[in-house]
Amino acid sequence: MTATAIKTSPALKTTWLKPGFAVEILDIDFNTATDEQLAEFDRLVNETAVVVVRDQALGASRVMSVAGRMGRVSAQHRTGPHPDHPGITILSNKRVEGKLIGVPDAGRNWHTDGTTYEKLGLKTLLYGIECPPVGADTLIADAAAAFEALPEARQRELEALTVVHNRATLIQKYNRAALSDSDAAKMVDVFHPIVVKSDIDGRKSLFVTNGSTKGVVGMPDEEAWAQVKGLINHATQEQFVYSHKWRAGDVLIWNDVGTLHLASPFDEDKYERLVYRVWVRPFATN
Ligand SMILES: [Fe+2]
């Protein structure tokens, strides 16, 4: 498949939001979708980096069933779990009786989800319930186009590099939760090439992130960080980025292989935000 190919199907109408990267499905309602429409949805989320569906009115169970079509939903015990559905993380600055109901500030730096899993292939689904009219955009960068834009000699050089990821690095960097030494010791290093290949179409992309990066194999830390930072800056230039402006009822799905993303800030004194997040791992993982 070429970067801009999109197969036409009578089951669903689609339009590119960013050609070759982000597609919007115009005519699916997840509460009433036919098997044929859902099969086409499955194909689109597998073959396209970013999929948007607007104007949905979904309960938490429906969000879970849509996510469950894409793989195995990953339980989120540590970060803002939904009281009835541990597969849903609540992203919100809302408070009930003075207590935050979810995570208020996740993902404010460019990053990739699922980097500390051994097996790659995570998909992220967000469902917007309350969305500020200004700010809070989700930005998603095309790490495949960014890799392809590099000179060939640089591509070959990068293909020889392996990044060390560690969940403890991520948690400690953002003070996400208190982490005891014994907890930290259980979070082992995970190694991924800095250039990864899509299981779907074989496209190569940069696989770099701010959060979990601990180092690069065989490289002094300072140099490793400069390399990774430089690649993140390269991949997140405007020409590679789709910026999602939220409306209540939006579903936004992306493949974490081939992308980086960032949550833009918003005026938290003025607006409330409530978004559900579900992480979906490949069916074959346990
Ligand atoms: Fe994220």
Would you kindly provide a written description of the structure presented here, covering whatever features stand out?
By secondary structure, the protein is an alpha+beta fold. It has a single domain (14-281), classed as Double-stranded beta-helix, CATH 3.60.130.10. The two termini are 30 Å apart. It is globular and about 55 Å long. It contains 7 helices and 18 strands. It has helices spanning 35-47, 60-68, 143-148, 152-159, 167-174, 181-186, 221-235; strands spanning 14-18, 22-25, 50-53, 72-73, 88-92, 95-96, 99-100, 123-130, 138-142, 162-165, 190-193, 195-197, 204-206, 213-216, 241-244, 251-255, 259-263, 274-281. A hairpin with a 3-residue loop joins strand 1 (14-18) and strand 2. Residues 107, 111, 113, 261 line the site of fe (ii) ion.
Summarize the structure.
By secondary structure, this protein is of the alpha+beta class.
